[in-house]
UniProtKB/TrEMBL annotation, chain A:
GO terms for cellular component: mitochondrion. Belongs to the FAD-binding oxidoreductase/transferase type 4 family. Residues 45-240 form the FAD-binding PCMH-type domain. Its EC number is 1.1.99.39. Keywords: FAD, Flavoprotein, Oxidoreductase. GO terms for molecular function: (R)-2-hydroxyglutarate dehydrogenase activity; FAD binding. This is D-2-hydroxyglutarate dehydrogenase, mitochondrial. Catalyzes the oxidation of D-2-hydroxyglutarate (D-2-HG) to alpha-ketoglutarate. Also catalyzes the oxidation of other D-2-hydroxyacids, such as D-malate (D-MAL) and D-lactate (D-LAC). Exhibits high activities towards D-2-HG and D-MAL but a very weak activity towards D-LAC. It catalyses: (R)-malate + A = oxaloacetate + AH2. It comes from Ridgeia piscesae. The keyword Ligase does not apply.
UniProtKB/TrEMBL annotation, chain B:
Heterodimer composed of ETFA and ETFB. Identified in a complex that contains ETFA, ETFB and ETFRF1. Interacts with ACADM. It comes from Ridgeia piscesae (Tubeworm). This is Electron transfer flavoprotein subunit beta. Keywords: Electron transport, Mitochondrion, Transport. Its main location: mitochondrion. It is found in: Mitochondrion matrix.
Amino acid sequence: MLRRQLQLTRLRVGVWHPSSRPFTHSRRVAVRAKPQDTSARFPHVKRGQFAEVTSEDVNMFRNILSKESKVLSSSDELDGYNTDWIGIAKGNSQLVLRPQTTKEVSACAQVLQLPPSCRRTPGGKHRVGILVCQAGCVLASLEDHLTDAELMMPIDLGSKGSCRIGGNVSTNAGGLRLLRYGSLHGSVLGVEAVLANGDIVDCLSTMRKDNTGYDMKQLFIGSEGTLGVVTAVSILCPVRPKSTQVAFLGCESFDMVQRILWQAKQMLSETLSAFEFLDAQSMTCNEENLGLKNPLKESPFYVLVEVSGSNSNHDEEKLNAFLQSVMDKSLVLDGTLATGISKIQELWQLRERITESLLADGYNYKYDISLPLTHYYDVVQVMRERLRDRVTRVVAYGHVGDGNLHLNVTTPQYSAEVAQLIEPFLYEYTSKCRGSISAEHGMGLMKNRYLHYSKSDAAIRLMRSVKTLMDPHGILNPYKTLPPDT
Amino acid sequence: MSMRVLVACKRVIDYAVKVRVKPDKSGVVTEGVKHSMNPFDEIAVEEAVRMKESKVAGELIAVSCGPKQCQETLRTALAMGIDRAIHVEVSDADYANMQPFHVSKILAKVAQEEKADILLLGKQAIDDDCNQTGQMTAALLDWPQATFASAILKEGSDMLVTREVDGGLERIKVKVPAVITADLRLNEPRYATLPNIMKAKKKPLAKKPVSDFGVDLSPRHQVLSVEEPPVRKAGHKVETVEELVGKLKEAGVV
């Protein structure tokens, strides 16, 4: 009973304070901006040559799909599906289908050629470190399922409690463990997908090595559902480490962050499993909007270093040597170390909940770029100069170990003026540094028209040929990923 | 005149771990499971450190009874600001039978040997939820006890303690030496900072075999079985009020 009480009080935010301190934390009530209709926010997007959904269509689907599958057509049921989580845009879909099996997905695609949606069926099998599961499995559930077998998923993201593996694969999700376990292009061994014409493509290999013909599964990984609907995945699962430890460090400048990263790579090498950074403004946002506590004294930058492995003594020795070294070289201003799960989770929250804390400001302009480390933080200062007091805050955090920066700007409501000051300036800046305008978040609706900032014309033409080949009628996730046809 | 504060800490399964019952129902799985300091003891350590910072306390000593791994817990206490630690070494076999009754006898002896003015510890451990050690130790020492403390102040040569009780808050004055047990709202423990973590490695940690204390460790009660709570049964969804009333009547509750 008490354990639960502790869990509740520790994980709840800003709830208990010593009686000597008055309750001064103002926890901002998240007043999220109501998203604009996509047609208003993205006026350049024109509806394709598609039929409108009729009541006959709805009935036809109810007949095709089994009793357990769902057909949703009322506006309050559809609201959640139509609205982007960050609140950037709101679509106008009139119908959502939730098929239970790959055959049903295929039937939907074939018979009426409407864009199918993700499934909910749980269940996965694993053997020898390879997990085969259906696309609808929630990442956190898979992680729990693998724990008993002493395995783990090769990816981890802040949204693990709700994101599905099918979506992760379709978007080539990056996340917190990419540094150690690589991208999904490497860890996914096989994919089963349904094509636009209803064909079921079974590339669900469970072999670690399989060089037979073209590696078609790679087409579905990261193509955001525009080339096929992923219905099942086989994925290589690493062994769950027996020991995990996290150090949280405060440092003076971004130059120090880079030097600490280099030290970490050298001294921690194979035990290093995550290296994340956040700036002072991100920490302030956490404190103001979620009431999270800064474990260190205020610093311009914070770094979270995680090591994990099979032997806690070995890892602790390496970590202590690393910490001693960064202290001796005066690379850090302050720091703390966590070896117990609860403290480790508390420290991770400071990085994983920034996204949530930003939303409480109102409207969030979210960017995800890859930059060479030397230019990494300059862009943030440039943006602050450019936007000044037109915005609530400009924060940066991210997978600095992978060169990936999450730049975020917030205002109380959407402002076209602010949006225009950011785009395309930010993309041009990134392009000049030869970075990527979308490190892991993909193109979607927000960035597809800027694809040329990171890919050559020839490459984009090739992408279009592939799209035309695989989805001639353009029914799979239209208006996204590739730039609109001019 | 600053006091000597003795803080007792217990190493328990970390509260974020999903605890599983052993198949033979003799207890819970502890092998390979993450442990850390009992959260209420952490609060006690924090309070002791604050007492030293406000010069109410002079010397801080941490003590823990158990096998070798207890030393990790003591190092955490040292990293938070405790001056020195005592590890009362107990074999794995004896530890399996150890109960608050034995711990309180050991703590009473340590408190006397160290000439402690205050014995500070958590109100209870999150593994057994006994809530007995502080109280029994006070009885053995014939010291006053102030349990469930949510605030501790020094007033002259006495301690003024605010206790959380069912009816609200109770303020009592206790003469020193005394036993005080910490409750959740006493404070929010600090994160140990790196320089202190490094310094802690060099702070004295004395090891004393439990036999030195002449305590009979034979168990006074026997655990018959440990079982998981019953799985929650699925509920029923009803469409109408009539159906609800019908189901309630079936269940014999209306």
